[in-house]
């Protein structure tokens, strides 16, 4: 064997020896640390900058039994119990059994605690969260037989009844002792002291509770107003989808805030604890889906359905499953809800970044509010791990975020309303232009009366109505006598003025709404009289003739007096089979009136009036 080989063997033996020694040292260190417990001196709250003393550290822990005060004191003196960190969840860290996969059972927590004497004030123990039921016992270290039960919440045996969260219990004790906590877990995977309790003075804790309650009330009130505002925006004529989505998100935030703050159990009893926990966990997934949906609406960007649909469907399935699975699986659903929330953040962030690249003001506001929420989250993490700083900003940051989003949607709504008003104005202008065009197409531009095109339309319609309803129909044709001489002697402008003035006088003769007065052509006019007999038509024509001839027209200086000749034809006198035939008979009557001296009314049966002077 060579010298090098011998050296390698010796070196290998030394390595194995050192590894064995290190392993033994680790085992001994583990055994010694197992028996090392945290000691708590609540006298720190006498310092001005500390008003809460958290009992956070390694407590003595006894699984599957409730220690008596005497057993707790003995175990503390002998350092015979293992330790468990507080706060922590005991699921997966206690001796498990095949018939108890979720580690349901009972346990005892013990912590050495020194309570100071504080004049004019009482100490309180704030219990944040212990799953599921608990009993608090103060054990004087030197007299365990004088142990005092501080409080019991929930059922430690028998039917499942959980404890309220965030409760304060009086600590009218002082000196050295042990805080003994009996815990029963029987519902969820969460078990034990999952939120570290703390000691505080009653006056400072009362003020802190008042401030927290006031902030909570203001937060819920602000969220309610935002929900109502956006709900009304969605239900209004705007139908802004983003407003509806934000209203839903705000409602879910309110529901979850009520659930987290223990209000459900306080209002309806702890038997609603399981339902409240299901709602609290399920809303995590559903809110992530709706938040992603809102980003899609606010910042539209093409996104493949293979990305969108799994997020929305998966989130709602997780939320639904949370309401249906056994209680001990709710904690598993929380992990899935957190995963789907994290996944939805990725495409949501793509929407925000895409909007920022287009210099969108809405995206800037959302980015600022998201940054504030992130800063608030970091602040709350620090506050939860600090003994002298307890300002939590997550509720405020959530309200700020929702307010920013509501402002963005409000700006969208204002822009949509302005755009709608502009479109409405343009619509009114188009309608006016259309009405003007229709009026110009149907009326004579000089006299304002219906033109020949309108006469043809109304005459055909009146003829059909007369046949269908079997009612008489009369037409009156008339023109101005010697109108050509007016144009020749006074000029065409005066002739136009005569036509215009005559039209004004004719329209002032109280015609029926159903009557149609038209300019038939040149100086000739036509009057359609539905549901009128020959006699009615002749009477109307005579009334118009007198009104025209009675006074001169205000067309020139000196004023001009004109007369008109009238021809009247009616279906009750003329046995005509067509509208054109009846119109021809009226035209013949008009020419007969002109041949008979003008300024008179004629019908097919002869003159009804003698010529006037």
Automatic annotation (TrEMBL):
Documented EC number(s): 2.7.7.65
Reaction it catalyzes: 2 GTP = 3',3'-c-di-GMP + 2 diphosphate
GO BP term, example: cell adhesion involved in single-species biofilm formation
Organism in which the protein naturally occurs: Shimia isoporae
Main enzyme class: transferase
GO-annotated cellular components: plasma membrane
Domain GGDEF positions: 471-606
PROSITE patterns the UniProt entry points to: GGDEF (PS50887)
SUPFAM superfamilies, per database record: Nucleotide cyclase (SSF55073)
PANTHER family: DIGUANYLATE CYCLASE DGCM-RELATED (PTHR45138:SF9), REGULATORY COMPONENTS OF SENSORY TRANSDUCTION SYSTEM (PTHR45138)
Annotated protein name in UniProt: diguanylate cyclase
Membrane-spanning segments: 207-228, 240-259, 333-353, 365-383, 389-409
Coiled coil (residue ranges): 413-440
Gene Ontology molecular function: any one: diguanylate cyclase activity
Family matches, as InterPro entries: 7TMR_DISM_rcpt_extracell_dom1 (IPR011623), Diguanylate_Cyclase (IPR050469), GGDEF_dom (IPR000160), Nucleotide_cyclase (IPR029787), Rev_trsase/Diguanyl_cyclase (IPR043128)
Keywords: Coiled coil, Membrane, Transmembrane, Transmembrane helix
């Amino acid at each position: 064997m060579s010298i090098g080989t011998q050296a390698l063997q010796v070196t290998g033996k030394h390595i194995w020896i050192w590894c064995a020694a290190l392993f033994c040292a680790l085992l001994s260190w583990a055994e010694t640390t197992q028996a090392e417990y945290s000691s708590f001196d609540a006298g720190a709250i006498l310092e001005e900058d500390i008003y809460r003393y958290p009992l956070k550290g390694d407590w003595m822990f006894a699984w599957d039994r409730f220690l008596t005060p005497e057993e707790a004191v003995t175990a503390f003196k002998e350092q015979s119990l293992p330790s468990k960190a507080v706060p922590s969840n005991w699921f997966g860290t206690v001796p498990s059994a095949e018939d108890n996969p979720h580690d349901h059972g009972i346990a005892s927590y013990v912590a050495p605690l020194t309570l100071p004497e504080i004049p004019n004030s009482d100490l309180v123990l704030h219990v944040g969260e212990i799953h599921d039921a608990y009993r608090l016992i103060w054990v004087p270290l030197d007299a365990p037989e004088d142990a005092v039960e501080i409080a019991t919440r929930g059922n430690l045996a028998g039917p499942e009844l959980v404890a309220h969260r965030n409760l304060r219990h009086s600590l009218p004790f002082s000196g050295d002792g042990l805080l003994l906590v009996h815990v029963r877990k029987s519902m969820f995977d969460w078990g034990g002291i999952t939120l570290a309790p703390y000691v505080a003075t009653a006056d400072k804790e009362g003020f802190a509770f008042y401030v927290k309650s006031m902030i909570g009330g203001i937060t819920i009130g602000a969220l309610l107003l935002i929900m109502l505002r956006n709900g009304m925006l969605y239900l209004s004529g705007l139908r802004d989808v983003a407003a509806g989505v934000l209203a839903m998100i705000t409602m879910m935030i309110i529901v979850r805030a009520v659930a987290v703050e223990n209000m459900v159990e306080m209002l309806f009893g702890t038997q609603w604890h399981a339902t409240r926990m299901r709602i609290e966990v399920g809303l995590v997934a559903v809110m992530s889906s709706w938040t992603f949906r809102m980003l899609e609406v606010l910042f539209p960007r093409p996104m493949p359905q293979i990305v969108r649909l799994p997020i929305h469907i998966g989130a709602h399935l997780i939320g639904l499953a949370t309401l249906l699975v056994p209680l001990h699986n709710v904690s598993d659903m929380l992990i899935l809800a957190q995963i789907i929330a994290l996944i939805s953040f990725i495409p949501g962030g793509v929407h925000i970044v895409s909007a920022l690249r287009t210099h969108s003001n809405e995206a800037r506001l959302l980015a600022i509010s998201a940054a504030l929420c992130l800063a608030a989250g970091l602040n709350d993490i620090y506050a939860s791990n600090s003994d002298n700083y307890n300002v939590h900003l997550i509720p405020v940051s959530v309200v700020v975020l929702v307010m920013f989003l509501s402002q963005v949607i409000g700006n969208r709504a204002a822009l949509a309303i302005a755009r709608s008003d502009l479109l409405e104005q343009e619509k009114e202008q188009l309608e006016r232009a259309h009405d003007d065009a229709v009026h110009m197409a149907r009326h004579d531009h000089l006299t304002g009366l219906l033109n020949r095109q309108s006469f043809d339309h109304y005459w055909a319609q009146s003829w059909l109505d007369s046949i269908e309803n079997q009612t008489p129909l009369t037409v009156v044709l008339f023109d101005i006598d010697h109108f050509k001489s007016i144009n020749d002697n006074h000029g065409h402008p005066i002739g136009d003025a005569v036509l215009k003035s005559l039209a004004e006088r004719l329209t002032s003769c109280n015609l029926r709404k159903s009557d149609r007065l038209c300019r038939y052509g040149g100086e000739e006019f036509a009057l359609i009289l539905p549901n009128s007999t020959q006699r009615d038509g002749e009477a109307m024509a005579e009334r118009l003739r007198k009104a025209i001839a009675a006074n001169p027209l205000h067309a020139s200086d000196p004023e001009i007096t004109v007369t008109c000749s009238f021809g009247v034809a009616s279906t009750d006198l003329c046995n005509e089979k067509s509208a054109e035939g009846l119109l021809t008979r009226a035209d013949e009557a008009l020419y007969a009136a002109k041949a008979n001296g003008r300024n008179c009314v004629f019908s097919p049966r002869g003159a009804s009036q003698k010529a006037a002077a």
